[in-house]
Amino acid sequence: MENPFLRSGLALAGARAWQEVEGNSTEDAASGIFTAQDARGLDLRGTRLVVLSACETGLGDTPCGQGVQGLASACLAAGARCVIMSLWKVPDTDTQALMKAFYGGLRCGKSIACALQAAQRELRQPASYSRWGAFVILGWPFDSPLADL
């Protein structure tokens, strides 16, 4: 595959179930895979935050001199202001705890960057770095809190 945005994506559980029930399962039907190319085709202008909490959503191809091309960069190219992504596999329970603390911070009026930092600090003890450190921000997370919308 020449296009690096076709090598990064998410498998959507149950995405093809409606096709099989309706008898519409064809080669041309949706695959249930949401690729970075699909994300690039979205209009995300005005979207302040995209959260990709699945494992390794920050990974992608790195063509010479072009940086990482994957889901996160595709969301930014589509107009999102910032993306939270993971750089390695994290157990579901740890991801859930981090996201709960993160969204709690947003609800309390913290900026995206401060909410993620506070969530990571909250989970820091006694969890090892590998359980909370995978989540990073790409883009511009320093705007006023999301509650100001």
From TrEMBL:
It holds the Pfam family CHAT. InterPro entries: CHAT_dom. Residues 3-139 form the CHAT domain. This is TTC28 protein. It comes from Symbiodinium pilosum.
